[in-house]
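subagent[fold] <- orchestrator: predict structure for attached chain, return tokens only, no commentary.
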Amino acid sequence: QPPRSVPMLAPVSPLPRTPNRSDASITAAAETLPEVLIISAAGLRNADWLDKSDPYCICRIAGKAHVVTQTPVVKNSLEPVWQHGPAPLHGFAAGDSLEFEVWDKDYGKKDDFLGRALL
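subagent[fold] -> orchestrator:
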């Protein structure tokens, strides 16, 4: 099979000179966001009657309403392993704290709170 061609980028020409400026240029920098990885939880209480809890974890920046990331539900586990992420922390600033909440997913009724950690 022949190698696939790689698209080439065209060279960028300098900006034209303007009467009020000797040189004009554009500088762009990519914002580097911190990321969070949610690995696991241990020793969760059982909030279900028939089986074990169905835990999931949400992460948010403390004091801010939006959820940064949420893990999938792990069914019937008190020791869930999510290996979720990395997820970028949009809106995170130096000095902010991360809030992690673990919930038991209940289908057909309100989810049960299992715990919280502040980092």
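orchestrator: received. Logging for downstream: The radius of gyration is 24 Å. Confidence is low (pLDDT under 50) at residues 1-15.
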